[in-house]
User: Fold Oxysterol-binding protein from Podospora didyma.
Amino acid sequence: MSSTTAPSAPSAPTTPSAASDAPATAVVAAEEHPSDGSKLKTFLSILRKFIGVTDLASVRFSLPSQLLEPTPNLEYWNYLDSPNAFIAIGTADDPVDRILEVLRFWFTKDLKYAKGRPCKPYNSCLGEYFRCNWETEDDAPRINTKALKGSAPASGASSTKSGKLAVPAGLGSGDSRAASTVSVSQTVANPAKPVRISYLTEQTSHHPPVSAFYISCPEKGLHARGFDQITAKFTGTSIKVMPGEHNLGIFITVERRDHETYQLKHPAAHLGGLLRGALSVTVGDVAYVTCPETKLKAILHYYDEGWLTRSTNMVEGIIFRYDPENDDKLRIKDVPVEDILVRLGGPWKDKIVFTLGPKPLSSHPVEEQTTIIDIAPLNVAPKVLPPIEQQLPNESLNLWGEVTKAILSKQFSRATTVKQELEEAQREKAREREKNGETWKPVFFEQVTDKGGKPELTEKGREVLKRAQKGEWNLEGIIL
Assistant:
């Protein structure tokens, strides 16, 4: 779903585990028809109580329903805003091209922030889970950097028309001024048959709030997984959101390339515009993508201006050879120039380009810069959801269904009441477990958390994904 609805309180830009609720709920007067301005004013009045608190996630304060997006947390966060970018990973034979495919996916995973405003979904309950599919075309332009070397500028190529390169609609406009025709292949494996991606996530821990996720695409020999957890701090003018200790990023494995695995580490981000009344996500930190098998690493340095000035949303990056046993290069300036294979950059909410070799991006003429992704024409891809009659009580859309109905009908008092009943039921279950000396265990994942950051599926989890790949949603025989 898109995040272009009412600007509610923020959730983390890179992780799906927002702060959970606690008995000490912030008291806010219910308002049946709140305006955007009144929402923001109420939100700020709550946040001011937490100035100086090290981690908002550990405070576990609850927001009134009129400040929430009517969407479960686990549904909202998934990283597959552009699933055709995901299934293109591993297509290229060259390792440099493959890490570029990973980076293209990276720049599309949070389209909701480039295309809309941030929002605050429901907090997740322990044991809550969400599953869905995506049906996507295999239409991502192919990346071939070897063909770029010694190629003619795209502006003189025969495949251009009216100054535009005919690129599939899935991944950008393909402006011929910044894309070489020889780097883009129009071949599609099977245009009549979409590729299916299946997704499963479960809230595995409540203290701290952590969720595990698994993305599966057997047809392309791809899977991705990870734990999601955030820490958040209110500075007085913005909210800084960072990965928690159990969030080591997204791990993408390309099974058909000898199971080479890419670790994508999240940067810290800020939710700003609180005082201006226009919420937006900015990034002013460093992100990393590493692949020990190919010995390639990417450093992405995000730049942003101060809170009083307009955001630049710029990113500068490099791809270089590194030593997995001695991974000590944390800044672009730390990398010897002779080790740099690719440079890339641009506004991450617009268009990212790359060039080959160690020379600075700015030293290359426009016709030598190749577009890796153009965000402007993209939209968040729709999900394929299980029929509501085949969803169990702990499934996100079912669990929060009555709260969602009340919010959509603007019955905010009722929504708050139902929400509080759900939260109290969760606390009662926790008290019962403590009384009986029981340890809670996830259903679909082996671990609550894991120091390696790569959760393992249980037999039930594998079966859920196997059925989803067949388009089957009935869980009878799994957890019934």
